[in-house]
Amino acid sequence: MIRVVLIDDQPLLRSGFRALLDLEDDIDVVAEAADGEEGLALVRQHLPDVALIDIRMPVVDGIEATRRIAADPALAGVHVVILTNYGLDEYVFNALRAGAAGFLVKDIVPEDFLHAVRVAARGDALLAPSITRKLINRYVTQPLPAATGTGLKELTGREREAVALVAQGLSNDQIADHMAISSLTAKTHINRAMAKLDARDRAQLVVFAYESGLVVPRNS
What we know:
alpha/beta
């Protein structure tokens, strides 16, 4: 059963998302909140698999809520999905850097919304290749963080290759095919890279891959 905490300050949207999720046999909305501070308390109480968090809220916004979840070892199993009205913007990028697994625009069709919750619960990033290209081209332009180069040096050649393929939006099975290895071995390379880079999930691997220069953005 996928346990979800829903955090959004708009009652109508929140109730709509909950009604949709409650129809699914494998998803259980264990709590909901109208602001980030209340939501953080509920996340700590219920330890959900997925926290759906509105990016712009009173008291504590979605970026700060994501940052606090990512910084708490007790919440390592919580996958944050950002909800936004605005699509890809700097707020979303900052949320991804803070530790979000991905983001959803609120006008998403129900089938895609439910699929995204299940993807996030598995620990996969909600970043399609087209979104990744837009994100990188628009926002990964600042100087590299001091620790980035050091992190890259910690990776083996195969781990670097796996991270580069994650950044292209490939699944574990696709990475395995590309590298001519088993899916389990591909997953092992990715998990080891995440551990070495202190990355919560695949979304942070995507950001790292481009910021470190491991993958170079293409014009698109």
